[in-house]
């Protein structure tokens, strides 16, 4: 770890940003004979024989420099995108650095995308080069001759060092990420030298934690941002690729992180386990970025770990709940939960001081407090837009604000509350039904429910019904009819439209590659799926 004064000196470096951060850090730490440690549970593709899983910053620079030379030998040009379709490993970081060294930039493709969707996404993004394993390349369809397919092994044969680095400008593209596919085919999202580093410049001095455990998908901008944020502070980070609950809990016991960072789905998975069986005492902070987390899951996690009060160690940790999305290089809102705080009910807190947030109606007018509307934000950390899709980019901009796709309201004390995604709220004859708001209330008030998703589906006769997709807690048994009565009693208490139907289903169904429940997929599938247990079919 380094002092706040040292951090300030690093981030004051001329032209530091996402495209060259590693070299600024390498210069600073090398001069002082020190380096933060980067470890991983799955070795890099760079040298399989060596099985390298521990790095200092200088190691990353040397490896990426060699790969930069390989990309030049391959024929990659400045400002040209290269698609990376890997397993969920540190290789995304190494190739990110290597491509930015030469003024190119990667297209990150999550390895959990199906080969068909991945190929469509890479082709739509204009990739002329696709770097992937032999197995993945063989699985891709429509491999036309205008794209070169290269394995990491083949790329390694071309390695040689480079003598100079590309000089980035603020608006240079440094990464194309992609959305989770909530509304269809994943969309390529543009990040620039400035936009991806803006939140880091603003927040790095406020962050805590000496040993970070990262469980973000490493093909996601959130993973890159966390790595940049951590290394700039001189802290250590472990890149976790194996993401079963057992593997995660085992890593926590082995490396003893004080901060654990992930998307909400990981924390849901951990809450399925008996955490009393594991040593979680090292943890002081759980950090989530994405959708708001559910109160029962947060309360379970913060009952473990530790925090300090007046220098005295106390039981219980903090949960930092950040609202973010693929279109933002850094989170937008933050709500910090502690063992003795009680601001839940999908409260997303307040925006960071460097973000202008507003709640808008359909015409872009700013709404008053306590009215539900579309969340819009203005910040340098917001994406430039969607690659090769100006129309969709412009549709997401209203009066200077970028629409996040969320429906929220603000209370008189300035706190924002999330009620639904704009694509998922349900129009009923009795008025709007905000699905995530309902889900939060039901999880809080019905002990048998572990997880729940509420969707509207069309019946064969054209009518609409509202269905609750439910995962019960382990060991709990309740009939769909009885549970439906309990759910609707909770809805009547709030004067919300009622639920028509119950389906018991594993929570692992209909997930996107980042762990999001894709309600679009549920809606598409429901009418044809006769295998589910429903109220009528119990």
UniProtKB/TrEMBL annotation:
The keyword Ligase is annotated on this UniProt entry: yes
* CDD domains xrefs: AFD_class_I
Q: Which SUPFAM superfamilies match?
A: Acetyl-CoA synthetase-like (SSF56801)
Against Gene3D superfamilies, the record matches this protein to: N-terminal domain of ligase-like
A GO MF annotation of the entry reads: o-succinylbenzoate-CoA ligase activity
Specify whether Metal-binding is a keyword of the entry: no
Keywords, A to Z, come to: Ligase
E.C. numbers: 6.2.1.26
Q: Where is the AMP-dependent synthetase/ligase domain?
A: 58-387
What is the name of this protein?
Putative o-succinylbenzoate--CoA ligase
Natural source organism: Xenorhabdus bovienii (Xenorhabdus nematophila subsp. bovienii)
């Amino acid at each position: 770890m380094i002092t706040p004064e040292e951090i300030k000196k690093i981030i004051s470096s001329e032209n530091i940003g996402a495209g060259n951060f590693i070299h600024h850090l390498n210069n600073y730490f090398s001069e002082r004979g020190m380096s933060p440690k980067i470890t991983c549970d799955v070795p890099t593709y760079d040298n399989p024989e060596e099985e390298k899983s521990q790095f200092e910053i200088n190691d990353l620079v040397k490896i990426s420099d060699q790969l930069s030379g390989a990309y030049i030998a391959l024929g990659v040009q400045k400002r040209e995108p290269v698609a990376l379709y890997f397993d969920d490993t540190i290789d995304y970081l190494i190739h990110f650095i290597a491509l930015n060294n030469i003024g190119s930039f990667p297209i990150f493709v999550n390895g959990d995308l199906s080969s068909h969707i991945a190929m469509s996404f890479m082709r739509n993004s204009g990739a002329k080069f696709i770097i992937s394993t032999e197995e993945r390349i063989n699985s891709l369809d429509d491999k036309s001759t205008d794209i070169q397919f290269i394995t990491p092994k083949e790329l390694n044969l071309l390695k040689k060092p480079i003598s100079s680095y590309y000089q980035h400008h603020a608006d240079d593209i440094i990464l194309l990420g992609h959305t989770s596919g909530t509304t269809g085919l994943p969309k390529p999202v543009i990040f620039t030298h400035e936009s991806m580093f803006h939140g880091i410049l603003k927040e790095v001095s406020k962050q805590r934690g000496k040993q970070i455990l990262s469980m973000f998908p490493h093909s996601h901008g959130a993973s890159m941002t966390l790595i940049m944020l951590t290394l700039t502070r001189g802290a250590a980070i472990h890149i976790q690729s194996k993401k079963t609950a057992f593997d995660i809990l085992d890593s926590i016991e082995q490396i003893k992180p004080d901060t654990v960072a992930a998307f909400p789905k990981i924390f849901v998975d951990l809450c399925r386990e008996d955490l009393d069986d594991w040593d979680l005492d090292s943890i002081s902070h759980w950090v989530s970025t994405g959708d708001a987390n559910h109160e029962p899951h947060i309360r379970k996690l913060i009952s473990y770990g530790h925090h300090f009060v007046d220098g005295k160690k106390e039981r219980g940790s903090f949960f930092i709940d950040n609202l973010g999305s693929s279109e933002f290089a850094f989170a937008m809102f933050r709500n910090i939960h502690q063992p003795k705080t009680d601001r839940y009910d999908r409260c997303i807190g307040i925006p960071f001081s460097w973000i202008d947030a507003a709640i808008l109606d359909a015409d872009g007018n700013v709404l008053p407090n306590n009215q539900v509307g579309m969340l819009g934000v203005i910040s340098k950390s917001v994406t430039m837009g969607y690659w090769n899709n100006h129309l969709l980019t412009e549709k997401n901009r209203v009066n200077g604000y970028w629409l996040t796709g969320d429906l929220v309201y603000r209370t008189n004390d300035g706190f924002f509350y999330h009620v639904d995604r704009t694509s998922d709220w349900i129009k009923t004859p009795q008025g709007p039904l905000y699905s995530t708001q309902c889900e939060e209330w039901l999880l809080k008030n019905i002990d048998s429910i572990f997880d729940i998703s509420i969707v509207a589906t069309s019946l064969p006769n054209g009518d609409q019904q509202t269905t609750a997709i439910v995962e019960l807690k382990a060991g709990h048994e309740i009939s769909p009819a009885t549970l439906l009565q309990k759910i609707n009693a909770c809805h009547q208490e709030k004067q919300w439209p009622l639920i028509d139907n119950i389906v018991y289903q594993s929570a692992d169904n209909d997930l996107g590659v980042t762990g999001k429940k894709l309600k679009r997929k549920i809606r598409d599938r429901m009418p044809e799926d006769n295998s589910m247990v429903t109220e009528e079919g119990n």
